[in-house]
Structure formats: C-alpha cells, structure tokens
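README, section 4: Worked example with a bound small molecule

Sections 1 through 3 covered apo chains. Here we extend the same pipeline to holo records, where the ligand is supplied as SMILES alongside the sequence. The molecule in this example is magnesium ion. Nothing else about the input changes; the structure line simply encodes the ligand pose together with the chain.
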Amino acid sequence: MTCQAPPYQPQQVRFVDQLSLVAAQSAVRTSRHFLRFALAKWQAALIEDDVLLVASELVTNAVTVTGVLPEPPAWGELERLGLVHVRLVGLPDSVVVEVWDESDEPPRLQRVGDDAEGGRGLLLVQELAERWGSYRTTGGKAVWAQVAVRPPLPRRPTGEGRGGRPATPPGPDPALLRRVRAGLDAAL
Ligand SMILES: Nc1ncnc2c1ncn2[C@@H]1O[C@H](COP(=O)(O)OP(=O)(O)OP(=O)(O)O)[C@@H](O)[C@H]1O
Ligand SMILES: [Mg+2]
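The generated complex, written as structure tokens:
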C-alpha cells in the first residue's frame, strides 16, 4: 500500500531521531549505524534487520538520484553535493523511516522481468513495510516506509544502548569540575 502524505499525526509521535548526510555513498552505511543505535535506544531492536534493509534501499535511491555513488566522490563533485536527511519516527506500534532528498521526482515502483539487474529496491521496501509512500517537502520530497513494532514502543528511551553502554554519553563529573574550579580559583 502506498500513501502520499506522512503516515502519522503529530500527536501520535513518541520520538524522532534525525541525521543529515551528504548525498554520497557513505550516507548508506552511516545511516545504518545511526538507525541501529536509535532502534536500540527506543527498544525497537527486534525490527532492526527490516528497518536497515528498507533504509538502505531508500538512502541508496536518494543518493543515486541527487548525489554521487562512486566512492570516494571526485574533488570536483564535492562542491555540488546536496544533503539527504534520514529520520526515524516512533509511533505507538510502528516506526517510520523517512528519507528526504532534494529531488521533487516521486519514486516509481517498477515492473521488472526475471533477468533485470535492477529495479527491485522499492519492491523489497513494499515487501518489508506495512505501507510506504512519498510526499513533497520544501526543496524536495520525503520517501517513507512504516515498519510494525510489537510489543509497543516505550514512551521514553531505555537509557541503555547496545552492549550495556549508556545510550547518551555521561555528563561531566561534578567532583572533577569542582577540583578544576578550585585549581583555577587558586591560580588567580
Ligand atoms: N528518491 C527517489 N527520487 C526519485 N526517483 C526515485 C527515487 N527512488 C526511486 N526512484 C525511481 O524509482 C525507480 C525504482 O526504484 P527501485 O529502488 O525500485 O529500483 P532501482 O533503484 O532502479 O534499482 P535497484 O534498487 O534494484 O538497484 C528508480 O529507478 C527511480 O527512477
Ligand atoms: Mg533502488
């Protein structure tokens, strides 16, 4: 099923994580790292495989259409590189991956023969997602796919990332700050 508007109302949104990347091949693997981390933080790691596959297809398409695929990009190409934005939106029982690019051309699902080399990315997205679609944005469009999550997502991040590491870096140590402050005061 496809849909031409964002598949959620603002009041349904439990969390949003977003990353902006240059429209180059490196955006594909960087967005995978970003999404893996965000899904773990939001206790949605169970659907990691599907979300990463879907995101890889959408980001690859965005880079193919608006950026450069050869890695690394040639010097002359760096100047004209645009941005793609990858956004993970958490809803009560699903996540939406949105990939924004600077082209206003909508994606087109293709009918491909058995011997065709390409043209299957969106078919895979359609297979893995409950729904997908695209909508116009200022300066381009967003292509999105919605993947179901069960059990429902929590309302707050877990506080623990993968491997038991904290999901956010620890804040400064107050005792250390007091010692630095005392040292500075003594030096003045
Ligand atoms: N972000 C996009 N912006 C504009 N057009 C798009 C975008 N994504 C896909 N399309 C169009 O939709 C077509 C189908 O995309 P799809 O991902 O299914 O196949 P492909 O990218 O051509 O091949 P493959 O993904 O198998 O390598 C693309 O060929 C392209 O014309
Ligand atoms: Mg593709």
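What to look for in the output: Residues 160-169 have pLDDT under 50 and may be disordered. The chain has five helices and six strands.

Section 5 describes how to batch many such records.
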